[in-house]
C-alpha cells in the first residue's frame, strides 16, 4: 500500500502527448479482438472470474466507457451492474450486502458501474458518515476484496480521472446540447462545485484501499478514446496474466 | 391460440432456398446496427423493457446465437440469464419463482437462455411431472407472460428448430472435433435419442402457450447464419413496433 497520499491534481487527465488518436483507436480495436478470445477462454474454463470496478466523478464517462470496451464481448459471459442510490432493504443491511450478491461466479466477467466505494465517497461528501466510519469501511473493503481474490476472482479497479474543467464542460453540455439533455439531472450544477470535495475523499480511498495485490489504476479520462484504450489494455493484461484455458472436456468421454 | 397442434416435422429447419448466405450476413450486419440504436433508445427512454426467451433442443445453437445477435449491443442495457438445473432453494419454491427474479426492469433487454419452459419440457421427457401438472403450468405461464406484458415488457419467444439429423451430427462432433470436446457432457448420446420425445412436448407447448398476443416463433436452426439473421430480424421488428424515444430530459431543467 502506498505510504503517501496520491495527489490527484498532479496526475494526468489526458493522454501522453506522443499518442495519436487514430493509431490508438486502431490499437483499441486490436485489443478488443484479444479480449473477445480471452473472455471466451475464461468462460469455457469455468474456474476463475474477473471483476472490473469502475469509479469516477459525475460525467467522467463511465457509461460510455462500458459501451466502448465491453460491446462485442459475448454478452453471455459479461454482466454489468450499476449501483444506484440504495433501497430501504439494502440500507437495512451492512454496506457490502448488496455488492456481495453481484460478484462474478466462476467463468464470468462482471463490471461494476460505481460500487461499494460509493459508501466511502458520496456518503462522506454528503456528510452522512464521519471519517472514523469511513476508515472502518476501508478495512472491511480490503478484507472483502481479498476474499474475492482468494476465491479466484481477479479484481481490476479503475478510477476515471476527469479534470475539474472537463467535468464542468460536460455537465454544462447536458443543458445546452439537445442530444445530451436526457442525461441532465437536478443537482448537476451542485455536482460541478463538488470536484474538490470528491478529490479529497478519493485520495483517502487511494491511500487506504490500494494494496499491492489490488491497486487502483488512475486512468486519464478527459478524452473518451484514451480512457477506453487504457481500460481495455489493463483488462487485456489482467486476462493474459490469468491465462485461462479451454478444458479438454467437461466430463469423461466414452472410450 | 392456434387450435391445431403444430407439426414440427413439417416445419423448415433450413433457410428458404432463395436466400444467399453472404447477402444474408450483410443484412444481419445492417440489422445489428439498427438494434444498437434501438436498444440505446429503449435504455434512455427507461419506460418499457424486452424479454427474449430462447428455447431449443440440445445443440440447437442457443449459445452461438446469443453471441452472434447480442454482441455489439451496449452490455449495460443487456443481460443474459442461463437457466440451469434448479438448486435446492429454487426447487423449494414454485417453478416461476427463480424466473420472475430475472425479468427485465424498465429500459433493459434480457435474454433467457432456456427458461420457465424447461419446467414443462425436460421435466416431462424425464417423467418428473404428469401431463396434468404440465397443463396446470401452461396456464400459469400464460398468466405470467401476460403480467409481464401488462407491465410494459415485450416478450419475444423463439424456438430454435434443429432437425434430428443435424442435432445428431452436432452432438457427435463434440466427441470427434478437438475444438468442441469441452462442450461434451455425459449423456449427450442419450440426448441424441430423445429428439422425438422432445418434439412431442414442444408441440404441446406451442399448442397451449402461443396466444396471438405472445406467440412462439419457430426459427429454422440447422444453419447458424440463418437463425441469427432470423432472431435479429424478429427483435428489430419488435423494437421498431415499440418505437422507444429518447426523453427530452430526466428531470426539470433550469429555465
TrEMBL record, chains A, B:
One of its GO terms (molecular function) is polyphosphate kinase activity. One of its GO terms (biological process) is polyphosphate metabolic process. Keywords: Coiled coil, Kinase, Transferase. It comes from the Bacteria. Residues 19-245 form the Polyphosphate kinase-2-related domain. InterPro entries: P-loop_NTPase (IPR027417), Polyphosphate_phosphotransfera (IPR016898), PPK2-rel_1 (IPR022300), PPK2-related (IPR022488). Pfam families: PPK2 (PF03976). Residues 21-48 form a coiled coil. Belongs to the polyphosphate kinase 2 (PPK2) family. Class I subfamily. This is Polyphosphate:AMP phosphotransferase. It comes from Hymenobacter mucosus. The lineage of its organism: Bacteria, Pseudomonadati, Bacteroidota, Cytophagia, Cytophagales.
Amino acid at each position: 500500500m502506498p505510504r503517501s497520499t496520491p495527489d490527484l491534481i498532479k496526475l494526468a487527465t489526458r493522454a501522453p502527448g506522443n499518442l495519436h488518436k487514430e493509431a490508438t483507436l486502431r490499437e483499441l480495436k486490436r485489443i478488443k479482438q484479444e479480449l473477445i478470445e480471452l473472455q471466451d477462454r475464461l468462460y469455457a474454463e469455468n474456474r476463475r472470474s474477473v471483476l472490473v470496478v469502475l469509479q469516477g466523478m459525475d460525467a467522467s464517462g463511465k457509461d460510455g466507457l462500458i459501451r466502448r470496451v465491453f460491446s462485442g464481448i459475448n454478452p453471455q459471459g459479461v454482466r454489468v451492474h450499476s449501483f444506484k442510490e440504495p433501497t430501504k432493504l439494502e440500507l437495512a443491511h451492512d454496506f457490502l450486502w448488496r455488492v456481495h450478491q453481484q460478484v462474478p461466479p466462476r467463468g464470468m466477467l462482471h463490471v461494476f458501474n460505481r460500487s461499494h466505494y460509493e459508501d466511502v465517497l458520496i456518503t462522506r461528501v454528503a456528510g452522512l458518515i464521519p471519517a472514523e466510519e469511513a476508515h472502518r469501511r476501508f478495512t472491511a473493503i480490503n478484507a472483502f476484496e481479498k476474499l474475492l481474490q482468494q476465491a479466484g476472482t481477479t479484481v481490476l479497479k479503475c478510477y476515471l480521472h476527469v479534470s475539474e474543467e472537463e467535468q464542468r464542460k460536460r455537465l454544462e453540455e447536458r443543458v445546452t446540447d439537445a442530444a445530451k439533455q436526457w442525461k441532465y439531472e437536478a443537482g448537476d450544477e451542485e455536482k460541478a462545485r463538488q470536484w474538490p470535495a470528491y478529490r479529497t475523499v478519493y485520495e483517502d480511498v487511494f491511500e487506504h484501499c490500494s494494496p499491492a495485490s489490488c491497486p487502483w489504476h488512475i486512468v486519464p479520462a478527459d478524452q473518451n478514446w484514451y480512457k477506453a484504450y487504457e481500460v481495455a489494455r489493463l483488462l487485456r493484461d489482467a486476462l493474459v496474466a490469468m491465462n485461462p484455458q479451454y478444458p479438454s472436456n467437461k466430463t469423461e468421454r466414452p472410450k
